[in-house]
Design goal:
The chain contains three helices and eight strands; from the N terminus they run E-H-H-E-E-E-E-E-E-H-E. By secondary structure, it is an alpha+beta fold. It folds into two domains: 61 residues; 89 residues, Pleckstrin-homology domain (PH domain)/Phosphotyrosine-binding domain (PTB) (PH-domain like), CATH 2.30.29.30. A four-stranded antiparallel sheet has the order 1-2-3-4, with no helix packed on it. The protein has a four-stranded mixed sheet with strand order 7-6-5-8, covered by helices on one side. Strand 5 and strand 6 form a beta hairpin. Helix 1 runs antiparallel to helix 2. It is elongated and about 70 Å long. The mean pLDDT is 92. It is a multi-pass membrane protein. Pfam families: Ycf4 (PF02392).
Length: 165
């Protein structure tokens, strides 16, 4: 029996929205700043208002490009696979381009100690506890009901304890 949970990573609706908002907002700042430089806007001076507008425009533009690239590369996306038949746990994630782009972790079924749900300021994360290793986060930060359902179903499947902090 195999269970596989998909992880969306950076390809979330909120990241798409922020990328578009930053891109178009920064273009507005750039347009206004350059319009001040070429004296197309009379009620704004180039120094200091127009210069600051250009600075923030470039800053927002490059930040939107960075966010767009993280969405395009799918940073943090992947899956968690729990295979009872072959007795292993596989955790796969995509990273930044390069020789270490793929993070592919395999653990023996016997090395699984348990699951832990951590709560910090009304945000909950599910961790896999591995013998001799640090805890590995399995889920994105989410609401309590969503994490609780997934954690209890996974603990029952893995036949391990579930602790909360």
């Amino acid at each position: 029996m195999v269970r596989r949970y998909s992880i969306s990573g950076s390809r979330r609706l909120s990241n798409f929205l922020w990328t578009f908002i930053l891109f178009f907002g920064s273009n507005g700042f750039l347009f206004t700043g350059f319009a001040c430089y070429f004296n197309k806007i009379e009620n704004l001076q180039f120094f200091p208002q127009g210069l600051v507008m250009i600075f923030y425009g470039f800053l927002g533009f490059f930040l939107s490009i960075y966010l767009g690239l993280t969405i395009f590369w799918g940073l943090g996306s992947g899956f968690n696979e729990f295979n009872k038949r072959d007795s292993y746990v596989r955790i796969f994630r995509w990273g930044f381009p390069g020789k270490n782009r793929r993070m592919n972790l395999y653990f023996s079924w016997e090395d699984i100690l348990g699951l832990r749900v951590d709560s910090q300021q009304a945000q909950y994360t599910l961790y896999l506890q591995i013998r001799g290793k640090k805890e590995i986060p399995l889920t994105n930060v989410g609401g309590f009901e969503q994490i609780e359902k997934q954690a209890s179903a996974l603990a029952k499947f893995l036949q391990v304890s579930l602790t909360t902090f």
